[in-house]
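Run log // design_07
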């Protein structure tokens, strides 16, 4: 099982459930979460979706071992939705989306915040956008959403440095709505989700639509630019060095790459 689903008080809680892999997204988890969001969007009994993780991580992002196989094995079979399908499901999700980041949030485990309506972080959570350390490009429209959410310089640091961001730093820059003690995180996020879920779904959908509609074209354009840049860089010298170093348990060395690599 890669995802667990539960309903209470019109809140559907989706728990990323690959704790042994720090809830890293393989194709199966991308598909499971995308399907769950599509189902929740159409379910008249669901008013709010809350996403959190099982174990000590929220999500370690894309499963790098699977990414390495995807980059090097021409016969690799991709999932039904994959990463792009999940991002589309997140962008198009019409109801309030709440995330409770219970631990490490890497890659999509961080950039999903740009697509959430409310983000709650455990005080022990840490975030990282590891794109430059993997030799790839941003994702999930973060190149547009992060500057709008936290300002140009905070976004530049988050997206370019591949450095860890603490929960307190995330809150100070505007990535988090609340920072909670670990033992209070899920209860606090759920309480806020239930406040929203008690309201008329039609009104919640209308509010979200009026907030997001002015940005929809820009988000899709950013996603398309990112996907094109990611596809161009994936499997290139820097990306292969990063993935090989990960598989070999060492730090990547980008200084010896060809010029422009």
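design_07 sequence
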């Amino acid at each position: 099982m890669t995802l667990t689903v539960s309903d209470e008080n019109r809140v559907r809680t989706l728990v990323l459930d690959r704790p042994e892999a720090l809830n890293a997204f393989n194709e199966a988890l991308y598909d499971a979460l995308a399907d769950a969001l599509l189902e929740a969007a159409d379910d008249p009994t669901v008013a709010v979706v809350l996403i959190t993780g099982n174990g000590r991580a929220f999500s370690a992002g894309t499963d790098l071992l699977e990414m390495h196989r995807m980059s090097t094995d021409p016969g690799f079979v991709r999932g039904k939705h994959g990463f792009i399908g999940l991002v589309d499901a997140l962008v198009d999700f019409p109801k309030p989306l709440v995330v409770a980041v219970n631990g490490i949030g890497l890659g999509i485990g961080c950039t999903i915040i740009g697509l959430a309506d409310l983000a709650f972080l455990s005080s022990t959570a840490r975030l990282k956008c590891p794109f430059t350390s993997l030799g790839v490009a941003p994702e999930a429209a973060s190149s547009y959403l992060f500057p709008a959410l936290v300002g140009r310089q905070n976004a530049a640091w988050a997206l370019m440095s591949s450095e860890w961001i603490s929960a307190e730093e995330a809150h100070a820059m505007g990535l988090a709505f609340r920072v909670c003690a670990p033992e209070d995180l899920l209860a606090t996020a759920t309480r806020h989700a239930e406040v929203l879920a008690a309201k008329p779904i039609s009104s919640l959908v209308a509010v979200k639509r009026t907030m997001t509609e002015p940005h929809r074209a820009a988000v899709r354009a950013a996603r398309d630019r990112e996907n094109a840049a990611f596809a161009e860089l994936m499997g290139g010298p820097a990306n292969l060095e990063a993935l090989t170093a990960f598989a070999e348990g060492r730090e990547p060395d980008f200084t010896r790459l060809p010029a422009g690599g």
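The radius of gyration is 18 Å.
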